[in-house]
């Protein structure tokens, strides 16, 4: 009889295995269920194999179902299956079941392998659960599982992303002390993080300073340090790293030169920038569109607009290295120098050169013409912009509305505000306040009240500025009862009037004469 049952078990196992190999997982599940309900005995190894199959097929809900079915029978997974199960659950972020499996493992004296631990730690760091990740590492060490280079890299990367650089440095030093040589990813994470935080000297010391000769640093690490020192205004140190980089057989690349070029142009060291461009070409590194745009930016910043334009037309266009950024740079410089008409001509030339203007192009020109009081051209540009399928953002719309209100062009301001809503861009409280300000100044408080009520029904909620604008407008129109009602609503929201405004409304109520009041 026992022999017969054993043969049945072997037959079930063989059938399940053949279904799995054929990719017929649902048939394998059905057969496993039949096996568990039959008279033949099912062992822990059967559950291990079957749950392992479900995990490999990403059938995590079913794997959990069978896991809870096997536990009351006194079965358990082996360490390998536990580790793969935990690794799989990380894909679906099932933190509750992961923690349950870890605790079950620890009770059995099992410890996940480094693969599973690292996948779980990476998930925790990506979810910004840094403290929990550090706790898992501590438990990992206590259970006798030593972190490897991947573990350290994940932690350093996560800590740097979270801005916890002191902890990242501590982990780094612990890693180096234990004899691990950081890999490219760990070095880049630490260097980029520290440089972003302004700790470029520490980034240098922990890498080139401490590990020189132990590991081969990549161009990415050298470039990150050069960028960090340039951002700190220490070009001498950046140049020294570039020289060290070359002496160690790592030739500066396009990124290296562009970082240095960016510094020179920002600091208006234009002769040095042009010399650097020539050095690039002699070294066999061809300047790209970013390189030329940086030099273009520097020339414009130094008000050398004629030279900038000639470089763009004669050199950049000839090399096919002229893009919308190039045109935007010169258009912006012309507008800043009060040459909006020339900027507009350049804008008109873009289409003929096959370069399509973008939102930035239109924003620059619209703001320039608004500041010159030529709102008709600004409106034309706005219509042209939307005709090209380019949507102005909320900030640009609000800027236009605010300017039109200040120049008293309320009809056009209202029209632009409606355009914004029709285009699916939701006005924020600043947008509403801009139009409400204009309406109140134009003694059109009833329209302002409609907007105020619209804010209550559709959002955004009025802020302190909104309430003060509406109350001031109502007082000037002697609508004191309505002003008091809005004041009550203001206090319900937790806002209070300034002392002088409070005194004004109280005096207005007492005197019932607001004809001379200004807020």
Summarize the structure.
The protein has 29 helices and no strands. It has helices spanning 2-21, 25-37, 44-56, 60-70, 79-91, 95-108, 114-126, 130-142, 149-161, 165-177, 184-196, 200-211, 219-231, 235-247, 254-266, 270-282, 289-301, 305-316, 324-336, 340-352, 359-371, 375-387, 394-406, 410-422, 429-441, 445-458, 464-476, 480-492, 499-511.
Average pLDDT: 88
Computed structural class: mainly alpha
Quick one: how many beta strands?
0
* Ends distance: 100 Å
Count, helices: 29
Report the oligomer: single chain
Runs in which pLDDT lies below 50 for 5 or more consecutive residues are 1-5, 514-519
Q: What fraction strand?
A: under 5%
Order of helices and strands: HHHHHHHHHHHHHHHHHHHHHHHHHHHHH
Largest sheet: none
Helix content: over 70%
Radius of gyration over alpha carbons?
34 Å
Overall geometric form: extended
How does this model look, in words?
The chain is mainly α. The chain is 74% helix and 0% strand. The chain has 29 helices and no strands. It has helices at 2-21, 25-37, 44-56, 60-70, 79-91, 95-108, 114-126, 130-142, 149-161, 165-177, 184-196, 200-211, 219-231, 235-247, 254-266, 270-282, 289-301, 305-316, 324-336, 340-352, 359-371, 375-387, 394-406, 410-422, 429-441, 445-458, 464-476, 480-492, 499-511. The protein starts with a helix and ends in an 8-residue tail after the last helix. The model is unreliable at 1-5 and 514-519 (pLDDT under 50).
